[in-house]
């Protein structure tokens, strides 16, 4: 379906164009970012960390929304 992306598990993501990714590292990834800044600065990030899972994978710690000069983090 166009205009929909998703994420689940340890962590897996499907982009707006249907591309599948698995990000297993300890860092922050850009999930959504405008190519042409129609709405000013806007992006959505996911902060992953090594969560001591038995299989050594990373877990999402928080999602971060940046819009213009504001930044909100949900844990």
UniProtKB/TrEMBL annotation:
Pfam families: VWD. Keywords: Disulfide bond, Glycoprotein. It comes from the Eukaryota. The keyword Glycoprotein applies. The keyword Methyltransferase does not apply. Residues 3-75 form the VWFD domain. PANTHER family: EXTRACELLULAR MATRIX GLYCOPROTEIN RELATED, VWFD DOMAIN-CONTAINING PROTEIN. This is Mucin-5AC.
